[in-house]
Amino acid sequence: QVQLVESGGGLVQPGGSLRLSCAASGFTFSSYAMNWYRQAPGKERDLVATITSTGGNTNYADSVQGRFTISRDNTKNTVYLQMNSLKPEDTAVYYCHFSRRDYRGRYDYWGQGTQVTVSS
Predict the structure, then answer these.
(1) Arithmetic mean of pLDDT, 6-11
(2) Backbone angles phi, psi at 112, to 5 degrees
(3) For the segment 72-83, what is each residue's pLDDT rounded down to a tens digit?
């Protein structure tokens, strides 16, 4: 079955860096765009970054543009989120996600999330 397993979260000081990883299995990883979302306490889950199936195109939320970089390794079935110049407002649970469609509808798949805390 489909599995998305995030890792790499933790506590970091403002201005620091973290790299999140999401290991995928149970589907043809190289065929799907992948996304990173985040959800802060009491807030909605927001899209942070997207990467196309080949890695040729990426998009970012305005709040992380220029600080975060999404990438993927289709030989390792893994998507990454490099986060630099972290701010306290980046504190959230970060989720790996993709969706697919068939004749029955759309299906969304999520990882379990990894906590990122930015604090001095």
Answers:
(1) 97
(2) -80, -15
(3) 999 999 999 999
